[in-house]
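Regression check, alpha-D-glucopyranose case 744:
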Amino acid sequence: MSQPSFVRILLCLFILTGFITAQDEDQFINDLLSRMKLGEKVGQMSQLPLWSADDEHVLNAIEAGRVGSFLNAGDRATKEKLQRIAVEESRLGIPLIFARDVIHGYHTVMPIPLGQAASWNPELVEQGAAVAAREAFQAGIHWTFAPMLDISRDPRWGRIAESPGEDPYLGELMARAQVSGYQGGDLRATGTIAACAKHFAGYGAAEGGRDYNTTWIPENYLRNVYLRPFEAAVQEGVATVMTGFNELNGIPASANTLLLKDILRDEWGFDGLVVSDWDSMGEMIEHGYSADSAEVALQSAVAGVDMEMASLAYIRELEQLVESGGILESRIDELVGNILRIKYRLGLFENPYPPEEAAISLSKKHLEIAEQLAAESMVLLKNEQSILPFASTVGRIALIGPLADSPRDQLGTWTPDGRPEDAITPLTAFRELETQGIEVSYIQGVEHPRSVDKSGFRDAVKAARKADLAVLIVGEDQLLSGEAHTRAFIDLPGVQEELIRKVSATGTPTVVVIFAGRPITFATVEEECDAIVYAWHPGTMGGPALVKLLMGERQPVGRLPVSILRTVGQVPTYYGHKNTGRPPSPDMLGIPLGTPEDPIDYVSYYLDSDFTPHYPFGFGLSYTTFDYGEPSLSSKLLKSGDSITVSLQVTNNGGSIGTETVQLYLRDLVASVTRPVKELIGFERVTLDPGESKNVVFTIMNEDLAFWNVDLEYVTEPGDFVIMVGSSSADTDLQKLSLRFDID
Ligand code: GLC
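Current build output:
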């Protein structure tokens, strides 16, 4: 048989199998729906938190087919108990789906997602999600409420910790990596769980950075920024989507037909399950959008929420609404069909019970991935006189700070199954150095990040005086980040700034390591820090990762996924901003603060702060240095359907091996709607030995130039563009090339 016809037959078989599988699935769902009573259909649409597995009402509801899902359903035995009732005692035996917030690890806790984004390593982030899936699957969990994909450009917002940062391109990569990590290639496979793209959509744009607050986002801006990670997740096959608490342009997300029907279903072809956030449906009454519970149920069902989390509008109102003709049962069938589809794809009808007990959590491999991800999340911001990596000649280290030995805080927010006793803190990891003859004296300095008691300063100063190196680990405790934990001031809490000043004043070289759930402001103590490492909340293996980094056993590769500001007064300040009609010029930096000097120009700047961030998006140092050669374009003219390349030589011109993240940005100079001064459209990590060079090549196609215009068309417009390549989003770190794009 000739090759082509064999291949053709294979292809047909593949398509046919796919078609049969889809047909099997549809047939299964339609058949089951045809046998379900209305009450059982509505039951599937209810997701309850499990307060007690012994509550007769709950057990009776399961048996009556009035519950479709539980979140936080306890241990394996509890889940098995509930599942047996659903499968073996209810009329149709439809299995429950168990959900949990496995946001950045289950027992093996990875860095917070914002820290993971700082790795700019999607492959590694995917491995981290796969670890979390394997451990959660083992615990009988079918569905995680992750990844959180809310682009965050306001560091006051506590949930920036869970986000992929300020940039949609990096957000898209983080979305794909996490969905793929959690779900693997097959939801039926052992060790995979359903992912959930949340919070759909625009939740990160809360006014004032205050959680749950109003969001106003023009639709073309919504599409050009906030929707991109969600669309990437849907393209990656995410099984579920969760609506946000926020109202978007006057319509709460859980009743927002534009989001849930027009975009998610009709435009993107999403065929999975939409779940509300915790009582986000019920809160539509508080929003002033729903008059009562019946309206909540109607508006949410019409818009397209399949399953209601934690509130009871569906279970209380839907049957009555159908019976009164307020909503067609065929609509209920569509919503329930989405739920049954995900249960089917997870294989729950064949394998509803937790898998055989196996020691999966905290395995050597899992901990190795957690340590690597923690190390790669850490960003070296400053390193005066290359005091890092500290040489093994250092004899005595003073380890100081309230977060040097705080395992719970090191895990970060949203770690319900992370156990502090499993976390290896920096203190524990530093103690290991004593076997190498390095003396480590540990002084807390302050008992807690928010403490204002300075009585510990004296001992800290004393220890620093006697040491060759002082390492301070300061920042935010985990409670200061995460849901509802918005801060109006985002500097170092308590008296930690003063602690840094006191230690630095001893003259001992001072390394400051910041653990935090957001980019906090610390420009006021910048001078006192000889070296600065931004470590976010690094998870279970944060201690070993940090010490190996400081020692030089690991290289600093992290790059900022979000801008670090000089002061909270600059919010919002992010790199992908618009140019305005009066952009400030670089020579306006450094205006003497608080002087009687008149404003030197009428442009968009501050009288009392530089307008640039303290550290820009994409910034991060290495232990070596890199030289960027002159970039060149394969052509200065890009025609529709063609592609051009940007290439440049990058050389490690320093003394040690290092990894550089070469970044590619684009600016559309003139368009039918104003475009950002730059947008990340690509990056490449290169690891080079001292003296080694690599020719880095990026390909640019017209798709890279596309955007949503005010008429909500996805367009590429002819005109002049600027291509920028360099080591961060700062203009001073970028080389620029001109590119013309023509349609014909
Ligand atoms: C919370 C969060 C959401 C989480 C859900 C379940 O309020 O907004 O991200 O997944 O409730 O815990």
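Comparison notes: The first strand starts at residue 46 and ends at 49. The chain is about 30% helix and 20% strand. No diff flagged against the previous build.
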